[in-house]
Amino acid sequence: MSRSTSSRVAEVRAGGRGAPRFASTAAPSLSWRVESDADGWAQARAVLEARRGGEIERHEFEGNESVALAWPFAPVRAYERMEIRVTPTGVDGAELAPSDWTPVEAGPLSPADWNASFVAAADDASGSSPDPATVRDGASADDVRAALLADGPDRETSRFRRELTIARPVARAVLSYTAHGVVELSIDGEPVSEELLAPGWTSYRDLLHFSTVDVTDRLSEGAHVIGAWVGPGWYAEYFGFDGDFARTWRGARALSAQLRIEYADGSTETIGTDDSWTATTRGPIRFASVYQGERFDARLADGGLSVGEELPGAAPAIVVDADPARLRPASAPPVRVTERREVAAVVPSASGEPILDFGQNLVGRLRIRVRGEAGTTIRIRHAEVLERDELGVRPLRFAAASDEYTLAGGGVEEWAPRFTFHGFRYAQITGIDAGAVDVVAEVIQSGLVRTGWLETDVAEINRLHENVVWSTRGNFVSIPSDCPQRDERLGWTGDIQVFADTAGFLFDTQAFLGSWMDSVAADQARLGGIGPLYVPLIEQNLFPPAPIAAWGDVTTVVPSVLYRQFGDRTLLARQYPGMRAWLDVIRRESVDGLWESGMQLADWLDPTAPPERPFEAKTDPYLVATAYAYRSAALVAEAASILGYDADAAEAAAFAEEVRRAFQRAYVTPAGRMMSDSQTAYALGLVFGLLPDDAVSAAGERLAAIVARGGHRIGTGFVGTPIISDALTMSGHRATAQAMLQTSEQPSWLYPVSMGATTIWERWDSMLPDGSINPGEMTSFNHYALGAVADWLHRDVGGIAPLAPAWQSFLVRPRAGLASRATARLDSLFGEIRVEWVATDPGAGEESPLRATVVVPPNTTAVIDLPGRQPVEVGAGTHTF
């Protein structure tokens, strides 16, 4: 058989992009991509091979699937190393050369593979210190703040040590670890990984991740020390807001780790945590908190985790009760430092202490280098904005967001906190001459792979898009949080369900959100099918668990988005029980197809709502709830059909139609008007497909009139904002949608840009025109939800929209008007999709003819729809129109 010389397999991958090196399942999904200069290259069949030792397992299949294929081989075994490769054949009959062999390796894969105990320091008080919640009632805000900042056993960091001697050559050594808290593992005093804040934040009652690293090159023959720092992290944080604080998870900081050594002579040895380890809470980290910051006294530093040193105050570790059934291998990209930024400017302050400006609102920490006298304490305060020439710290509420470092003296000292992170653009250093400190900001985030870009000839639109990117980066730290800076930082589900499409274009979110959805499923099960408001769940009195539309719908929306973007049927199947359970809750809440019960957050932060009552939106909350009832029913019907659950699909589709008819009777007039005459009401009706066909035109006209009457300013909150531009576009009012993106009058997307924003704000007016901070208690300057408009920008301005799962087929339909040229790129699982266009008659607005170049990756097709010409379908290659 002939072989193609112009096409090759460029990559073979087991599992998601950016996921940890070691497999998180015994059956990871398989994907590969082909590079080809042959026009129209598409796959007709492929041969997959797995090599274990000298044996090869072979599977051949027909078709063009090359993304997220189910694992066809015998399951991967714990601690196994194997290799896979693929040999595709094109539709032209030419067989490509086999790919390189790609390694697949595993550490422990299940609780059955875990033999290590959880151990704690004997002097850990097991979380017995006073809880701020106990002093909340009748206490002043200062009292609560003092309790949150007080030293105590729950804020301490434990250290662990285990000595070992390697007496013969090591062929392979694999170290796996987790903690109650957040952990940094070391060998001979040096961290074994760049990962931070492991094992991350999960629903700890039901799910606890562990990390695995290869440490073969760290275990030469001789003496070694396995060491660990375990800080409180999310496990022991006092969660809450508005003064309502409590700890959900209690108990000692605890470590569980196991090292499996394969020696060159073929023997193996496993070393796990037990009472032979030593531990102490004594050490230089005197206080650690996600919200409050970290305090480090370098005078107490020692070499206690190094060979030949002693761990001061150490005693035999104690074994603590812990359920190993919760353990799962980490599958999400690890949290790490992804970028370093120098000081962009030094700003004078009203108090006289200079303020460092890093030029970008970011999430991370400061690394300092300093020389000074022993006992000098440096305090670092962080803030997102300035107000009246000082740090604007009021929006932080009860979060101090401050770090302290006490010098040991005697030379140059370098330090960065281990167990906290902050959201900030500005920082103020006190306690020492700021000029004596060298400072760099380290950006911290889950290490997702960047996949999507958009650039236009409009600087303000480019800045808006960058703001969306930075808010995604800052809030994707272990979980998709609402904000990264104040006393909250929770995984609010409504935020991510409206933003999932945007996030999945900008970054490969398959592993990240897929992992988080496992916690969603666990917490949802604890709530009897109710979709949680935030995940992981915390004890918080302000919002007791209840069915709330748009937030609970994370259970149906995010799995559907992930399937559409990445084509992983296994992930959809794993989440389907939760999708169905939420639909059952909706059906119980609905009467004759209408969901008109319970508290609803509805169109949260509608700009007309008072600052202190963000739920008082223009749009009827039960209209929103019923609209989402329809959407979730339709998504469950679609998922059931994909998975082959035909009876479920028919039942969900029938309920969806019942809701649709009820929505029309209750909320739509015969003339096509909505009972709630608001931007969000019309957007929901149009985009969700709730309106009668003969009412669509009138509804679109009314929506455009409302927007024009409001000076093209935004009138939507969290629910309406992601879809308002689509509603206008699909109803024939693209020019109106474009005008909304062109105004910088408050409220609008470009108002924050005009005020110097470098991230997306929580409120349209988080900062007022006079430079003062919105008086509302809830004001964040890094919240991605309102940045969901970027999804429309990618599709309508950039011109790239999906037509089939994983983008194997996609639509190219850019339009001028908002910009006169643009470049959009998406690094899809099949390869790079690129659209570059320029308007040849910019004055014609959206109807301007375009000169466009489109790159279609191998094994995909595109429908090209440009102004003034009929759509045409093309295959792989570079096409100019």
Characterization of the model:
The protein has 881 residues and is an alpha+beta fold. Among the domains are: 7-105, Immunoglobulin-like, CATH 2.60.40; 111-332, Jelly Rolls, CATH 2.60.120; 337-444, Jelly Rolls (Sandwich); 821-880, no CATH class. Helix content is 21%, strand content 29%. Strands 19, 20, 24, 25, 26, 27, 30, 31, 32 and 33 form a ten-stranded mixed beta sheet that branches. Strands 7, 9, 12, 16, 17, 22 and 23 form a seven-stranded mixed beta sheet that branches. Strand 25 (345-347) and strand 26 form a beta hairpin. Helix 4 runs antiparallel to helix 5. The longest helix is centred in the last third of the chain and has 23 residues, at 621-643. The protein starts with 6 loop residues before the first strand and ends with a strand. The model has no long low-confidence stretch (mean pLDDT 94). InterPro entries: 6-hairpin_glycosidase_sf (IPR008928), 6hp_glycosidase-like_sf (IPR012341), Alpha_rhamnosid (IPR016007), Bac_rhamnosid6H (IPR035396), Bac_rhamnosid_C (IPR035398), Bac_rhamnosid_N (IPR013737), Rhamnosid_concanavalin (IPR008902). Pfam families: Bac_rhamnosid, Bac_rhamnosid6H, Bac_rhamnosid_C, Bac_rhamnosid_N, Ig_Rha78A_N. Residues 799-875 form the Alpha-L-rhamnosidase C-terminal domain.
